Amino acid sequence: MAMAIMSRITCRAAFSFNTALTRCLFNATSDGHVTERVEPPGPRVITSEVPGPKSKQLSSRLSQYQNSDAVHFFVDYEQSQGNYVVDVDGNVLLDIFTQIASLPLGYNHPSLVKAVKKTENMINLINRPALGSYPSADFVERLEATLLSVAPPGLCHVQTMGCGTCAVESGMKAVQMAYQVRDLIATWEKNGDPVAGLCIEPIQSEGGDNHASATFFQGLQDICDETGVYMIMDEVQTGGAVSGKFWAHEHFHLKHFPDVVTFSKKLLSGGFYFTEELKPKEGYRIYNTWVGDPVRLVLLEYVLKEIKEKDLAANAEIVGQQLLNGLKALQSEFPGLLKNARGLGTLCAVDAPTPEIRDDILKRLRNKGVHLGGCGASSIRLRPSLMFTSQHVAIFFDKMRSTVAEMV
Ligand SMILES: Cc1ncc(COP(=O)(O)O)c(C=O)c1O
Fold it and tell me: Residue ranges of region Disordered (predicted)?
């Protein structure tokens, strides 16, 4: 009886939820047939600048309660589609920053819309488990179908976490715990400062998109091996096929796999992969309330399917090369404004001469309908979704060229 009532409630909830979603994300033709929404043909800015008046008003309201200096603009997520973000003022921007590099398939991708409409997936949306203690029956299967199916070569253990910060901190904790077991006493005896692990990004992203050679990473691993220091590869920003390989560190041809690989952003769930040696011997050592989120794994399954079926890693390599070639051409044309074009897949960047000029370029670009991010002191950082195509590249360079041309 209880089951019957529950399933009726579930069905009714699913029905109204689905109807609302359908209305938002699909267009109905005159005969009632629903079609998937398509991307806008290009950017369109209708206010005199971005952020526009509605965004500014919301920012000042928000700033009563918290610092809102980091808010770029307020977003209309219902209207945003594919590679285009729509702000609350109705401006349509080609999004090459994608929620700080965290949207694998752009906005409202049809396969994800379909996924959340399935009743069995909605159960995960409604009930958020304390995953470390109360996982659902299908959790192991979901892990196997998602994160373990794309585990970095050689790593077959994984710990989910809620976000990238948790992933990096817990990865470091795992390293410290194993180090304590192995070497701490010996090091203390020598009165030195013990070093348990070394954490490095394949491309130092927030710090300015700084690249290092494969030889550098190989040498670093040799030092780690010689000194007994664990190597943590922080792939929070670089993982998920954007580099042209699923994991950016695969480009380095390391002698052996890193001890820990952290992930978040395009993998939707935070977490870290780790070696057998780092597996805690007791429960509750690496633990918090939610320890991740199964909903993210439900969605990740669809994301990974798209990446595989559409070979989006290859797309990132091709489109990334077009972006890098274009940036190099622009810096040759405007050497006073752009330099150091660099990239791996779509993880591309270029430097402005000063932070002020960088910020000015970003502001002017946004006012032309292209949203990009900064990093480091004066770098411009490109972080498109995996759905970025040559057509978007062409629109970007059209706007980018006219922006720097008007600043000469
Ligand atoms: C390389 C790297 N590690 C860790 C983090 C922190 O991740 P989160 O913001 O999900 O906590 C970020 C966020 O940008 C990052 O880029």
Answer: 36-57
> Looking at the domain assignment, is residue 178 inside a domain?
yes
Phi, psi (deg, nearest 5) at residue 144? -65, -40
Question: Which of the residues in the chain have pLDDT under 50?
Answer: 1-26, 28-34, 185
Q: 136 and 280 in one domain?
A: yes
How many angstroms does the Cα of residue 210 sit away from the middle of ligand 1? 16
Residues 270 and 159 in one domain: yes
Domain that holds residue 271: 130-309
The conformation of residue 192, written as its DSSP 8-state character, comes to -
Residues 153 and 280 in one domain: yes
CA–CA separation, 150 and 296 (whole Å): 15
- Whether 136 and 285 map to the same domain: the answer is yes
Ligand 1 centroid, distance to 263 Cα (angstroms):
9
- Counted domains in the chain: 2
pLDDT of residue 129: 81
Which of 165, 166, 172, 383 has most ligand 1 atoms within 8 Å of its beta carbon, as the pocket-test mutant? Answer: 165
What tens digit of pLDDT does each residue of 38-78 get? 999 999 999 999 999 999 999 999 989 888 888 999 999 99
Kindly state whether residue 194 falls inside one of the protein's structural domains.
yes
Cα 271 to middle of ligand 1, angstroms: 11
Query: Which residues have CB under 8 Å from 360's CB, separation 6+?
Result: 407
- Atom 14 of ligand 1 has which residue's CA nearest to it? 237
What is the predicted pLDDT for the residue at 4? 33
List Cα–Cα distances, 310 to 105, 296, 304, 317, 320, in angstroms: 11, 21, 10, 13, 16
Q: Which amino acid is residue 285, in one-letter code?
A: R
